[in-house]
Amino acid sequence: MSGINKAREDMYLDYCNEMQRFDPTPHGKISANIQARSVFRRYLRKKWFTWTDIYDENKKLIGFLITAKNLNLHGEGLYICEAYVILEYRGSGFMERALMDIFDGHTGPVFLEVFNTNRIALRFWNNIAHKLNAKLISANPSPSGIPGLTEYKYFIDKVTDNKK
């Protein structure tokens, strides 16, 4: 495995460990076994996923954003699969800038899933939706069936100057 992919894998495993706080099901133990590595490799291997690295101003890898288009589970549109920034960089705008780059030129549905108990993430995504003038279309239990996980579907009519 290349150096960048090893750094990505380590960060993905950190993300999985952190998500255990919000997921009370056996699925929440994903990082404790080989499944997390398998999911990580699938994200890199499958062509419909796009892995975006997030770097700080010193070119340090500080996070990632994994997206996909038109997944069968969610229907047509852009799906935010995973989004993570290491703790000390949260609130500094790096994730927001990465998202605005992803949304630049996108119109149509956007899907994401958030654990109901992850209040910080819920607030973050609500702020992003507000900045994009995205309309909340639905908030339903996740199609994956994981308890406490809600799928949010937004619709973006027109993206204006996101790079503020």
Descriptive account of the structure:
It is a single chain. The protein is an alpha+beta fold. The protein has a domain of about 110 residues: 3-Layer(aba) Sandwich (Aminopeptidase), CATH 3.40.630. About 30% of the residues lie in helices and about 30% in strands. It is built from four helices and six strands, in the order H-H-E-E-E-H-E-H-E-E. A six-stranded mixed β-sheet has the order 1-2-3-4-6-5, with helices on both faces. It is globular. The model has no long low-confidence stretch (mean pLDDT about 85).
Biggest sheet strand line-up: 1-2-3-4-6-5
The outline comes out as globular
**CATH evolutionary superfamily of one domain:** Gcn5-related N-acetyltransferase (GNAT)
Mean pLDDT: 84
Ranges where pLDDT stays below 50 over 5 or more residues in a row are none
* Structure annotation, total helices: 4
What quaternary form is this? Answer: single chain
Radius of gyration: 15 Å
Gist?
31% of the residues lie in helices and 29% in strands.
Outline the fold blueprint.
Layout lengths: L2 H17 L15 H11 L3 E7 L5 E9 L8 E8 L8 H10 L4 E8 L3 H13 L3 E7 L7 E8 L8
Parallel strand pairs: 3-4
Antiparallel strand pairs: 1-2, 2-3, 4-6, 5-6
Helix pairs in contact: 1-2
List keywords for this structure.
164 residues, Aminopeptidase, six-stranded mixed beta sheet, globular
